[in-house]
């Protein structure tokens, strides 16, 4: 049995943050009913199109295992159908711009009147306060949540990261909020509102940078390269390049082939527990006992010299050879893997983290499967729905409308053609 079997989700999400949340819930077995504007649908269906006429990868990779109903929630009949869906479902998830749900006539108060057990889960850019009415996209959240100011090199501009911590990261936070509210409802019998603000989600992921902000009051951040370089610290956590964010110094180092391959690099951590093995591997056995090198605090002002020496060694090996030599010695290293290497990785395919999916209009494509594995709730990744593919099915099977009622609904323009 799937973990969330029997849970019905009214999925009013679009773009990335909300859809990543409801996709996870669908993978865990919830029945996710995606509500989309007739004839238009989620804007991402038509964004970054690679195959003309087919739903984009942007959409298909974020909306697996869902059903799609076309529904105009501003049309009178559409509002009636939406009301029936709210009566029937357990959770409503939305990431509209602030106030959009109220403008549709579905305030939290109205939703509670319709179904007091309903959980209303929202992604917004900011929590209550000065910015609560702002529209927000991924990179705005990365900038407002502390990620950009702490990413990049000290002498360069702030940087955004490729990992979608603002959108997908907030979707993950929201999913946890939803299952927690469902668990609470088991005892209380009541629904509640769940809010995941993108700024808050990013800040949560930048927790260690706020740790460093407070450490600054007590002295320099000795594990940052800038300390060894004698550069004074300012009053905010600086950008730390590729320095490790934890207590064990680390860097990205060149490997064999770096001159032509932009990803011929490895991450290398000089974990204190294996320092002696590192010294042997790189051919500096005397560093094991030499004054200034033997203990972690002594090494902090020499990290540039130490990593340059380690890099002389890593540059003689491929990133995979570095892994093969260091792993048996328990030296923590990691190759910089390109998206091409990841998509071709046999191990990730075996675990279902990378999957191939068939799609009626775009053919076979590769996607990232469910990254969370439950031993008794296996995930089968199913293709995303076509726009309105399940409109009739949902009207009949979920809401119980019959032939003439459905004809009237279609005539009203509330659901598009509903012929699929
Ligand atoms: C992402 C975002 C910036 C997109 O903004 P947008 O394209 O203008 O989309 P909106 O959410 O404002 O919705 C547009 C309109 O479509 C309407 N709409 C959406 N679905 C509809 C439906 N099925 N039927 C009728 N109208 C619908 C909304 O009610 C809204 O109308 P309104 O402006 O009259 O209130 C915005 O939704 C947002 O800030 N969301 C919260 C943060 C977030 O999740 N950001 C990350 C996205 S990955």
UniProtKB/TrEMBL annotation:
Any GO BP: oxalate catabolic process
Q: Which UniProt keywords apply?
A: Transferase
Q: Where is this region: Disordered?
A: 226-247
Query: Which residues does the annotation say bind substrate?
Result: 246-248
- Signal sequence span is none
UniProt xrefs under SUPFAM superfamilies? CoA-transferase family III (CaiB/BaiF)
Q: Reaction catalysed by this chain?
A: formyl-CoA + oxalate = oxalyl-CoA + formate
Please tell me whether the keyword Secreted is annotated for this protein.
no
Where, in this chain's numbering, is CoA bound?
16-17, 37, 95-97, 103, 135-138
> Which GO molecular function, any one, fits this protein according to its record?
formyl-CoA transferase activity
Which residues are the active-site ones?
167 (nucleophile)
Q: Does the keyword Protein biosynthesis apply?
A: no
Q: In which pathway does it act?
A: Metabolic intermediate degradation; oxalate degradation; CO(2) and formate from oxalate: step 1/2
The UniProt similarity line reads:
Belongs to the CoA-transferase III family. Frc subfamily.
Functionally, this protein is described as follows: Involved in the catabolism of oxalate and in the adapatation to low pH via the induction of the oxalate-dependent acid tolerance response (ATR). Catalyzes the transfer of the CoA moiety from formyl-CoA to oxalate.
Q: Which PANTHER family match?
A: SUCCINATE--HYDROXYMETHYLGLUTARATE COA-TRANSFERASE
Q: How does it assemble?
A: Homodimer.
Q: State what protein this is by name.
A: Formyl-CoA:oxalate CoA-transferase
* Gene from which this protein is expressed: frc
């Amino acid at each position: 049995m799937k973990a969330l079997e029997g849970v019905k989700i009214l999925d009013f999400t679009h773009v990335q943050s909300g859809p990543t949340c409801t996709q996870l819930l669908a993978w865990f077995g919830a029945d996710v009913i995606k509500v989309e504007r007739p004839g238009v649908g989620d804007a991402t269906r038509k964004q970054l199109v690679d195959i003309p006429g087919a739903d984009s990868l942007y959409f298909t990779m974020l909306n697996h295992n869902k059903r799609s109903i076309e529904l105009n929630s501003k049309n009178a009949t559409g509002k009636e159908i939406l009301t029936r869906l709210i009566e029937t479902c357990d959770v409503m998830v939305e990431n509209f711009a602030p106030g959009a749900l109220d403008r549709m006539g579905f305030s939290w108060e109205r939703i509670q009147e319709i179904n007091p057990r309903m959980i209303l889960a929202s992604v917004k850019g900011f929590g209550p306060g000065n910015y609560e009415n702002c529209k927000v996209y991924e990179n705005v959240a990365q900038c407002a949540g502390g990620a950009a100011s702490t990413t990049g090199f000290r002498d360069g501009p702030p940087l955004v990261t490729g990992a979608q911590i603002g959108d997908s990261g907030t979707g993950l936070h929201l999913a946890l909020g939803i299952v927690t509210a469902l668990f609470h409802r088991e005892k209380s019998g009541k629904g509640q509102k769940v809010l995941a603000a993108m700024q808050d989600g990013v800040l949560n992921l930048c927790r260690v940078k706020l740790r460093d902000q407070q450490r600054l009051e007590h002295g320099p951040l000795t594990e940052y390269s800038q300390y060894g370089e004698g550069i004074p610290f300012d009053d905010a956590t600086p950008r730390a390049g590729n320095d490790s964010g934890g207590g064990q110094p680390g860097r990205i180092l060149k490997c064999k082939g770096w001159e032509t391959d932009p990803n011929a690099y490895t991450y290398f951590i000089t974990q204190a527990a294996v320092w002696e093995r590192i010294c042997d591997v790189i051919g500096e056995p005397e560093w094991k006992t030499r004054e200034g090198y033997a203990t972690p605090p002594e090494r902090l002002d020499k990290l540039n010299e130490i990593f340059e020496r380690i890099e002389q060694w890593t540059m003689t090996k491929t990133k995979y050879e570095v892994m093969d030599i260091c792993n048996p010695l328990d030296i923590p290293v990691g190759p910089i893997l390109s998206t091409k290497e990841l998509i071709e990785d046999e191990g990730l395919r075996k675990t279902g983290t990378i999957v191939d999916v068939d799609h009626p209009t775009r053919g076979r494509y590769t996607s990232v499967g469910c990254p969370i594995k439950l031993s008794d709730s296996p995930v089968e990744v199913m293709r995303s729905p076509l726009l309105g593919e399940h409109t009739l099915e949902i009207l009949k099977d979920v809401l119980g409308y019959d032939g003439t009622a459905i004809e009237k609904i279609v005539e009203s323009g509330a659901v598009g053609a509903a012929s699929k």
